[in-house]
Amino acid sequence: MEAFAHLFVYSFLFSSLFRTSITQDTITPTHSIRDGDTLVSAAQSFQLGFFSPGNSKSRYVGIWYMLSSDIVVWVANRDAPLNDHSGVLKVTDDGILVLLNSTNSIVWSTNTSRTAENPVAQLFDTGNLVVKDRNDDDPYNFLWQNFDYPCDTLLPEMKLGWNLVTGLDIFLSSWKSTDDPAPGEYSILIDPRGLPQLFFMKGDSIKARAGSWNGLLFTGQWLGHGVRPNPVFEYEFVLNEKEVYYKYKLLNSSVFARYGVNPLGIVQRFNWVDRTHSWELFFTSQSDQCENYALCGAYATCNINNSPICACLEGFLPKSPKDWDSGDWHDGCVRRASLKYDDGDGFRKRTGVKLPDTSSSWYNKSMTLKECEGMCLKNSSCTAYASLDVRWGGSGCVLWFGSLVDIIEFAKGGQDLYIRMAILELDHLEKKRYSNKKKLVAIIIGSTFLVVGMTIVALVSFIWKKKLRNQGMTKRSQTKDHDNEGGKDDMELKIFDLVEIANATENFSKNKKLGEGGFGPVYKGTLLEGRDIAVKRLSKNSGQGLNEFKNEVFLIAKLQHRNLVKILGCCIHEDENMLIYEYMPNKSLDSFIFDQTKSKLLDWHKRISIIHGVAKGLLYLHEDSRLRIIHRDLKASNILLDNNMNPKISDFGLARSFGGDQIDSKTNKIIGTFGYMSPEYAVHGRYSVKSDVFSFGVLVLETMSGKKNSRFCHPDHHLNLLGHAWKLWIEDRPMELLDELVGDLCTLSNVLRHIHVGLLCVQRKPEDRPNMSSVVQMLSSESLLPKPRQPGFFTDSQTNPSSSKHATSSTNQITMTLLEARPCFG
Q: If we measure between CA atoms, which residue out of 23, 189, 636, 763 comes closest to residue 774?
């Protein structure tokens, strides 16, 4: 037991933690907390003050238990430590909680879009530090609360999940070490995709999955241990249109309990024991090998009591038998008999299991289990179904689409999972259960039916796929003589039916239209299983045509990166050509940074996160993908934002691929958007990876400033945004470029570095610009940067021929999205 405690339990050592000055439970604009003071909740459950963790000399503002001061449950400035004991925590007249250093500079602050007439910060007995209006009688109407921004500890009454209206993601993240409370590499979060579920992450990788909520507990059970009715705990999971979250309550106010993830990546729950005056470890996650995410691959189960622990589901065989026998199960299993997708399919019930990953699932709260079965049979992509809620005999419906991953068998508990299989396979499995007297006959009959059935299924499947392929690819065969430039491999994408897309978009209703670009209009759609999609429909009047359509399909189908938009398939029917993408609810970057209202939602951290994400996506295109891809139309409107404001590069209709050692190319048809094209491409038609670097530099400066390059105007000069940025740089005034709506969370050195990198990217000569691998390194390091040279298009916009409505003297054929400059007043 001592060895176990030594391995899993960590504590924090503090210097100068016990103070002589105990204050009340509130802070007002006339009263501040200095290093040495503490704030105590009304019932003296929690205390707030300054501390230094472990052997660190840095100072932080934190909240800890009064009965156990070595356990810090929340840290304010975890990314911005103080170097001395001069810190001051105060509330401004506008209701902002700020932490000041010795120079009265803000090192940490809260964020709120509202103000209060009589603001006050109060520490509740739950450990929740809130900022509210003292005159407001609503006990939950807070301007800000630390429960929305937890650290490594989940306290009672604290939510873990998403506010789907504001996009707020509430998750736990470990400390870097016992001496450093900065966010570490481990986190616990709710994934809202499909049926929401709880994940334990290491960086961007899933380490373990607690699963979805079944009405009583998470199906993986490890954060729901002890959920049976008891006098101590009450668990709650909320899933509606506005929010999805998990939380627990203590029914006995004299009991103390906490969940947390430590720097070693161990998820633990502790209960306070008065008898020993210490924290007792109640349970720990990942207690066995089966808890490792997707250990056994697809269509396989993990059972820690078996040897080997991984086994294919009934009716499935190892995909790689040699690897499987050697203990490498990651390739998983495949069907022994193919599905028939009509009356020839049925379901095999599997009991007592942890339900598979629900990221690609669909759910309905009101359907019966029988209706759920029927819905699954009607959809050829459905692979399994189960009850959504196991209480009262079961209710609701969950459908899975695609492979079934991360299934665990439990000795006790678990749920029923209905796995789709061919009828012949089900008959075969049923026959295997005959008595020993009929076993030999059953095997012979079953084998005969299986062979015949597999032949029929394979033949029908071949004919069906060939018919679908011929129907979908007719249009492509008619245009086979067109220049492709994107590769000649076959399309490995799902082909959607026109009727399915028309139904999803309400027959391309105006209410479903998201916008329109050079390719054509884009619509929001909802598939039958509930998945939202974006439908990009080629317009008959589009300046782009089938070549761009094919180019986008061939290129992006081969690309897989978190910062590239994901294509789900296409629809080709007579004169209709459509691309089907994942739906991005926050639309494009330009709708935020160039909008005075929405721009306020992009604070400094979000902006640099977007810049870094785009940089990583471009690096993948230029150096890490199968083909070297030149995007050629990188701009703010082609950067889409997902639920978490993560950027995804889109629109590959103008992209080109390079092979081998090819460095650049030249075209007589210049297509792009004014303001983002590099000088060598706009004037001479020559493009390379450095052309994308130039566009990226423009994007960086636009994101930093909130101003559009092609529409920028200034009362003191006629320079474009690049020229204005260069002028401020050489005059040693670069901070004036920063959007005033960014807020106070940025640091001078970080702002200067991003402006510096942006200017390096827009230098006139391609050879002077860094490649994207250097850009990514420069953005994330503190290394010395080379001096930038004058940017391209550094000219007076009144005399710049590129801004004229008339054609240039270039002999190239130019198709350009021209955005005219607006008049500048004042």
A: 763
DSSP 730-757: HTT-GGGGS-TTS-S---HHHHHHHHHH
Would you state the pLDDT for residue 437?
45
Q: What is the pLDDT of residues 430-453, one digit of tens each?
A: 766 554 445 555 556 666 666 666
Q: What is the pTM of this model?
A: 0.53
The pLDDT score that the predictor gives to residue 764 is 93
Distances (CA, A) of 401 to 420, 502, 660: 11, 21, 38
Asked if residue 420 lies in contact with residue 350, where contact means CB atoms within 8 angstroms, the answer is no
Q: Which of 25, 633, 692, 739 is catalytic?
A: 633
Q: Using pLDDT thresholds of 50, 70 and 90, give the confidence band for residue 460.
A: low
Domains held by the chain: number: 5
Q: Distance between CA atoms of 504 and 223, rounded to whole angstroms?
A: 37
| 360-364, 621-625, 713-717, 802-806, range with greatest mean pLDDT | 360-364
Residue-by-residue DSSP string for 212-271: EB-SSSBTT-TT-TT-SS-SSEEEEEEESSSEEEEEEEESSTT--EEEEE-TTS-EEEEE
Between helix 721-730 and helix 748-761 the angle, nearest 10°, is 120
Distance, in Å, from the CA atom of 24 to the CA atom of 121, rounded to the nearest integer, reads: 11
Q: Is residue 436 part of a domain?
A: no
Q: If you compute the radius of gyration of the chain from its CA atoms, what whole number of angstroms results?
A: 30
Domain final residue, candidates 96, 123, 149: 149
DSSP per-residue letters across 389-419: B-GGG-BSEEEEES--B-EEE-SS--EEEEE
Residues 70 and 193 in one domain: no
In the residue annotation, 84 being an active-site residue is answered as: no
191's enclosing H/E stretch is: strand 180-191
